[in-house]
Design a protein that fits this description.
There is one protein chain. With 783 residues, the protein is α/β, with parallel strands linked by helices. It is built from 29 helices and 25 strands. A 7-stranded mixed sheet has the order 11-18-17-16-13-14-15, with helices on both faces. A 3-stranded parallel sheet has the order 2-3-4. Strand 24 (708-709) and strand 25 form a beta hairpin. The longest helix has 24 residues, at 102-125.
């Protein structure tokens, strides 16, 4: 309605829409009405869904004063995006500006999910609802893994952190390096970008960029996965060298492996420093033997995830990305393609620029509104069942979001996890919320029968597997058509776009796709002009966070794809399922949507980035702190910076208010600081709370206030449970008798809690079974 054009992304945001004048629209014909903030120009009718995009939720005593269109950088400073994205920030840069507008992008995707869920519930009750999509809450939804606190894990399942915040943190967690040695490496890395790359390789050898024979960077990805770490060593031919150095391959879920935690290939992020250095040297020498493109093709063909690091411009030109329609031509302009797709839609038509619809839209809807038959559910997905086979972050985040919306989510964990406890335990403290967890050994016949029962009960089967893995697990679309044809197959992939290409089945992780899509080249210590001129090889790439940029967004986009498929199924009669897909590649690209027409200025790129302009930027203040401020254009920035450097944070913000005519300013907070600030219950928008599950696991993380229906933000549907702790309840819900449950446990078709001991057994004791495991136990009358 009354569209405005001319902004840098208006043509992208307005595509496939019909431009109309407000006077030409009959508001009663709308299913969904989208407005900014408190806009009251269109009143919601009972059957309509009205979504308001806001900064903070109405009635918020802490953040309610903020205008709904408050500057994006203000929110990034507030929610931790300037402090916790740089994995090497502990060197000398506690704050690094990012031009990615993540709060609004996340709020947009989450708001779409809320609308879809409300429409789905309207099919059952005939009523719509009012939705508030908070940009602050949207940003906080992306930092759960970085600020969560958890207590109660057995010691052997509570590993070293994925990101270090200080030299003291490294010295406390990484053995084999003296303080003076680390300080020397640190000073060298500060002064020489190449030395930073060297140090990063030795801290994270299985997920660091390495130079190849052509001077370009290749990024292997195996730091959280036992099979991939051992696979890399074997494929690259240095498994014997690694073993000779004392590095072992042990099950990290067995307490007896704890003495090997600092040299275990199953936990490479926790290597002692000499072991890390040895592996980095082996990688370094090997990758110099071929070009980056040769290594990428060879390793991916071997099932080993990696990526050639390139710039955003190179990614936009990538032939495979174009063929996959990750990028599409729209009205003569190259834009991001669709971010999710469903098989039932068939071949999607080309995206089109916005067209003028004039009064025609008023005649477009003649159907009467649905009749109200029942009140809306508190959580709109109540009654739907999800089977969650996903792991790491993106897939589990999708399952958590569907649980927040009210679905019953059965989390079906693998019998032998290849990912380490950081992924399968610590991160799941946040991602298991609302779910019911069971662990199954799919190699056993009885476990496969449990899986089949769960699938038959499911509306959605959620997986983050490659196509060949789906077939081997019996979770492909053809197998689902036999087991439960009405189920939606919801698949998260790495490289796929709307159209299938030769790279669509490649492996990958969030960090690898950061390298592939150009994110890493914006945040490393290098000359942005040289990278723009010569390509990624001219710089030193750096991650934009590990768990807060791509993974969560992919999970939330998957939720959108699943909801779209569910709605489509229901309006078709509810008998035939669908196949909905999204990928890390399209969502990594989506984070950069505001940069489609060009790169930000040099002041917003690199490890010393401060902001988009000299006046709207991050300023250092006294005490080693920082604020983000928007000084008037007429202000002398150098004089302002000198003044601010002597002021404490509160005084610096007051200076903007009093001396600069009420100019906007905010402290730059870490994710831990915003969590502490919001742990007192004083904000309706941001509520960091403690939850304690039945298993004794105590977790502190965000309440899902990013969903707010009819003025009431949602709360956690259920505290997280240890992996496998809900086995008995899940099996009972699937129709198993107590005796059958006992048989499944004794046969180890159902695997014990945390892959080690049932909930009533102390973790420090080895698990003993009076009956030897056997696939035949049930047949022999164990019940």
């Amino acid at each position: 309605i009354d569209p405005k054009e001319g902004g840098s992304v208006d043509s992208y945001l307005n595509r496939n829409k019909i431009a109309v004048r407000a006077s030409d629209v009959d508001p009663s014909s709308a299913d969904i009405i989208l407005v900014d903030g408190a806009d009251a120009s269109l009143a919601r009718l009972p059957h309509q869904v009205l979504m308001r995009t806001v900064a903070a939720l109405p009635g918020d005593e802490r953040f309610g004063h903020l205008p709904d269109d408050v500057d994006e950088d203000y929110l990034s400073a507030l929610t931790g995006f300037f402090t916790d994205m740089d994995m090497m920030g502990w060197l000398d840069r506690p704050v690094t500006y990012t031009p990615l507008q993540l709060c609004s992008i996340y709020a947009g995707v989450i708001g779409a999910n809320a609308c879809a869920a409300a429409l789905l519930d309207r099919l059952r009750c005939g009523q719509g609802r009012e939705i508030h999509a908070s940009r602050i809450a949207g940003g906080l939804s992306a930092i759960g893994a970085l600020c969560l606190k958890q207590r109660g894990l057995p010691p052997h399942l509570d590993p070293v952190p994925a990101i270090y915040k200080s030299t003291a943190d490294i010295l406390a967690k990484r053995r084999g390096i003296e303080p003076s040695e680390l300080d020397a490496y640190k000073q060298a890395a500060i002064s020489d970008p190449a030395k930073q790359a060297w140090l990063f390789q030795r801290l994270y050898p299985f997920m660091a960029p390495y130079k190849c024979s052509d001077g370009e960077w290749i990024l292997p990805m195996a730091t959280f996965n036992r099979r991939l770490a051992t696979g890399y060593c074997a494929y690259l031919g240095f498994a014997d060298d690694v073993s000779a150095f004392g590095i072992v391959d042990r099950d990290p879920y067995d307490p007896a492996s704890a003495p090997f935690d600092d040299r275990n290939l199953a936990l490479p992020i926790g290597f002692n420093f000499p072991s890390s250095c040895k592996v980095a040297e082996l990688f370094e020498a090997k990758f110099l033997q071929k070009t980056a493109l040769e290594w990428e093709a060879e390793l991916e063909a071997a099932g080993l995830p990696c990526a050639v690091i390139q710039t955003w411009e190179a990614w936009m030109r990538d032939p495979d990305a174009r063929a996959a329609r990750i990028f599409a031509e729209v009205g003569g302009e190259v834009q991001l393609g669709r971010a999710a797709w469903v098989k039932s839609a068939g071949e999607y038509p080309d995206l089109q620029p916005m067209v003028d619809g004039a009064a025609a839209v008023a005649r477009d809807r003649a159907a009467p509104p649905p009749a109200a038959t029942a009140p809306p559910r508190q959580r709109p997905l109540e009654g739907y069942v999800i089977c969650d086979f996903a792991n790491v972050i993106a897939g589990p985040a999708c399952g958590r979001m569907l649980a927040e919306l009210g679905a019953i989510v059965y989390k079906l964990g693998p019998g032998v996890p290849q990912h380490g406890p950081m992924v399968m335990m610590v991160w799941q403290a946040e991602l298991h919320q609302g779910k019911h967890s069971i662990i199954l050994d799919a190699k056993k016949v009885e476990a496969r029968e449990v899986i089949q029962r769960a699938i038959k009960a499911a509306d959605v089967v959620l997986v983050n597997k490659m196509d060949n893995q789906l077939v081997s697990l019996g979770l492909n679309r053809e197998a689902l058509d036999v087991a439960n044809r009405k189920a939606i197959l919801l698949q998260l992939k790495s490289h796929q776009g709307e159209r299938y290409t030769r790279k669509s089945n490649w492996n990958g992780y969030d960090p690898a796709l950061q390298g592939k899509t150009g994110l890493m080249t914006r945040f490393g210590p290098h000359d942005p002009a040289a990278v723009a001129r010569e390509g990624a090889g001219a710089g030193v790439p750096n991650f934009h966070g590990v768990a807060s940029c791509v993974d969560y967004l992919t999970g939330y986009m998957a939720a959108w794809a699943g909801l779209a498929a569910l709605y489509s199924r229901e309006v078709r009669g509810g008998e035939q399922g669908d196949w909905a897909v999204t990928s890390l590649a399209v969502c990594a690209s989506l984070t950069q949507l505001t940069l489609q027409r060009g790169e930000p200025p040099p002041s917003a790129v690199g490890h010393d980035a401060t902001g988009m302009t000299p006046h709207k930027r991050v300023f250092p203040v006294a005490g080693g702190r920082f604020i983000y401020g928007q000084a008037p254009e007429a202000c002398d920035v150098r004089e302002l910076a000198a003044t601010l450097s002597s002021l404490e944070s509160d005084a610096a913000i007051a200076h903007f208010e009093n001396a600069l005519g009420g100019a906007l300013a905010v402290p730059v907070l870490t994710v831990q600081e915003i969590a502490a600030l919001c742990s007192d219950g004083g904000s309706k928008t941001a509520n960091f709370t403690r939850k304690r599950g039945e298993s004794g696991w105590e977790v502190e993380t965000w309440e899902p206030t990013w969903f707010c229906f009819d003025g009431a933000p949602l709360s956690c549907a259920r505290p997280p449970a240890f992996a496998g702790a809900d086995a008995q309840q899940v099996l009972a819900a699937l129709g198993y008798s107590p005796g059958e449950v006992l048989g499944l446990k004794q046969s180890r078709a159902v695997v014990p809690t945390n892959w080690y001991a049932w909930g009533d057994k102390p973790h420090r004791e080895p698990l003993s079974s009076p009956i030897p495991p056997s696939d035949e136990l049930l047949k022999e009358g164990l019940e």
